[in-house]
Amino acid sequence: MSQYQHQRLRDFVANLANLLDTQPEEATLLQRGSAWLGELIRHDDWLDDAFTQPHPEHYQQYLLYADAQQRFSVVSFVWGPGQQTPIHDHRVWGLIGMLRGAEISQSWQPGPNGLQPEGAPVRLDPGSVEAVSPTVGDIHRVSNAYDDRVSISIHVYGANIGAVKRAVYLEDGSEKAFISGYSNRYLPNIWDLSHD
User: Fold this and answer.
1) Phi and psi at residue 174, to the nearest 5°
2) How far apart (Å, rounded) are the C-alpha atoms in residues 4 and 8?
3) Are 13 and 63 in contact (CB under 8 A)?
4) The pTM is what?
């Protein structure tokens, strides 16, 4: 048997691809996708160590799977101690599931003088799932909840997120376009069934 339980990620991407084939409403997609992501992150035995490595200066975004039609992608976000994103958007639907550690997500919204925090920060602990999209709220800043350890979350987006033209924001509301890319050059081999 393989060291990693890759069938968990295989099942997740198969379920999501099958659902997308039906062209569901976004609310249905987020609801069912959240349940499947919750099941995936309930187990911490499937993510290869190569996609859990922090960088000393900034978070890492490792591509784990990209749908052949670029309808969705799955990435691991690896947060070094105290690391955070700038305020940013996604411009597609997304799901965030906490695998290890914890992170804090603060939503932002346009206000009379730029951007302002929207609601209280949300803490995601292992097993927690949160949704983002232009419909349900798409601008936020995310940070590792810990200053002394690595945290890892699994993100699923409704596109090849590393190729989507998005924006980072300053609190005055000004924005700068960016395309995130990925931290890894190779994907995990979840399709080798010879060791299962």
Assistant:
1) -70, 150
2) 9
3) no
4) 0.94
